[in-house]
Amino acid sequence: MPSPALPVVVVESGLLESVANLVALAGMVVLVLIIVAMGGIAYRSMTGDGIQWPGDADEAADEDEVSRGRQDDEWKYY
Predict the structure, then answer these.
(1) Do the Cβ atoms of 69 and 78 come closer than 8 Å?
(2) Less Cβ around it within 10 Å: N or C end of the chain?
(3) Which ranges constitute the DSSP H helices of the chain?
(4) Residue ranges of the domains in the chain?
């Protein structure tokens, strides 16, 4: 007994194909940006300029002493 054939839906709309291509392209761009960002974080971590928390900046400094952060630092004072 042959199995019943399922209907195959074929959409030959150029608009649907264009939207699918745009979604695939956007996904690829996002993936490339994520990979580049991860590479940048890995590079900064290996060169010693990685993530530093304000509490870890200078453990030898007194609690009352305030030190100024670097120019590219998010924190102005520690």
Answers:
(1) yes
(2) N
(3) 14-47
(4) 14-49
